[in-house]
């Protein structure tokens, strides 16, 4: 498949494009971080409520929320193309 030449961007357009991309990927990083924190807090609350000595729910929910967040980010990246 032949490559189609991309139009030249002005420095201002390149700067806007770079800022937009960094905000998009930075938002994805915060989304992953927030999901992990939410899983940990809910898990710790469940561990305390059930009186568990080991943080079983905290570990399980943190991993579950992280995996779900990675899946959502993956789907977002597929839709960007």
Description:
With 81 residues, the chain is mainly alpha-helical. The protein has a domain at 34-81. It contains 2 helices and no strands. It has helices spanning 11-50, 56-80. α1 (11-50) runs antiparallel to α2.
SSE order and pairing:
Layout: H1 11-50, H2 56-80
Helix pairs in contact: 1-2
Global structural class: mainly alpha
Beta-strand portion reads under 5%
- Overall 3D geometry? elongated
Distance between the termini: 17 Å
Features:
single chain, 81 residues, mainly alpha, elongated
Quick take:
It is built from two helices and no strands. By secondary structure, the protein is mainly α.
